[in-house]
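Example 216.
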Amino acid sequence: MKRLIAPSLLAANFNNLAADIEMINHSDADWIHCDIMDGVFVPNISFGIPVVEHISRIAAKPLDVHLMISDPDRFIVPFARAGASNLTVHWETCPHLHRTIGLIKDQGITASICLNPHTPVHLLEHMLPDLHMVLLMSVNPGFGGQKFIEETLVKVEILHEMILRKNPACLIEVDGGVNFETGRRLFDAGAHVLVVGSFVFTSENPAETISLLKKI
Ligand code: DX5
Ligand code: ZN
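Predicted structure in complex with zinc ion:
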């Protein structure tokens, strides 16, 4: 089974973002995770389209863009043009989710859905055939460095069984509080992609931490 690592730039050094992107470029990381927060859907503001565009100019790995924003339909085309390889929207922000996923795919990139910790996985049953990936939040979105919510493991197991039935190509990504210990349990439960922010960037040797995460 696939075991991918997507370091989250939210925990990178924004005084020298290029250096951290270079580190990821030369590491065993698979994707670069970009957290977009609007201060409305989540209680924090991060960065937006121009920053993603600059990141994409020097990134050698696909940009996995996580939209924690209200009414994401308005920003799908700009983020796709800025260089996103994948756009993930939150189930909680999309009243017409099927249309939103179609709009993302129309841009020639992959489309994924994220669920907050309280949102049950069965709500995605009829969307799974259309998805590249499901992102399960294992913390409440908005901040890095939070504690892993244990119930996420149960959600991974249920979702794993659902995707085998509905779309075996669909990936399961988990975001928040991932370290060697939670990461290993998530991979064992059926996760394919781990987003890792503070655990990578506060470690002494981030590139080595990424390599070790791939082997847990
Ligand atoms: C949280 C973000 C995460 C965050 C993870 O809202 O979606 O991607 O960067 O950070 P850690 O790994 O520190 O929990
Ligand atoms: Zn994220």
